[in-house]
Amino acid sequence: MKKAKVFLIIFASLFLMVSLFLYINRDKFAYVGSVDYVEVDCNMKSEILNEVYLSDQKIRRENNLIKYAIEDHRNQELIISIIEKCGMPTLNEINQQQMNAIWLGLQHTENKYRVKYFPLIEKAVKNGDLSKEQYALMKDRILMDAGKPQIYGSQLKNGKLYKLDAPETVNERRKEIGLEPLEDYLKRFDISFDAN
Fold it and tell me: Record keywords: Transmembrane included (predicted)?
């Protein structure tokens, strides 16, 4: 009985200390949770998308995703909320940078949202609102996240080219959508590739 009481006191003390530590340092942790819809004004979507684009590029340039996890998450919520409330914009409504912000927000979110909104990306590419390269990057990322081979060779994992479907014809597929040969693309990452 005495041992049980001592154990409970020690356990409760440890629990309180950890809880206190987490509470005091709560601003240093970046739990972002699920993507929720947030209130957006459809009349302000251009301004919102400008801010999202600039924020996304700052986060990627500084390469400190932990520091900016909350901001990155907020960008994703804004993009998804705009699409849900206002519909998928086109270049008739917004400019190219703002369209790119939509693509970036979806490319940098969870795979389930990429999959959900990918048909809108496909339609935007067909309409000329987004590039075929953006299509290829998102398509390959969706395939990689599903554990399937990629089509265009745009995705790397652990410093290597992620598995590729039919490597012998990848450059034909890349050429069809206006991408450089895979060998040239991979040189930027000091990765060699031989399709044969």
Answer: yes
Q: Residue with structure tokens 């895979």?
A: 182
pTM metric for this prediction: 0.79
The structure tokens 């999959």 sit at: 115
Whether 81 contacts 40, CB under 8 Å: yes
Q: How many CB atoms lie within 10 A of CB 41?
A: 11
**DSSP per residue over 19-61, as a string?**
HHHHHHTGGG-----S-------GGGHHHHHHHHHHHHHHHHH
Query: Is 90 exceeded by the pLDDT of residue 6?
Result: no
Query: pLDDT tens for residues 9-41?
Result: 887 777 766 665 555 554 444 445 677 889 999
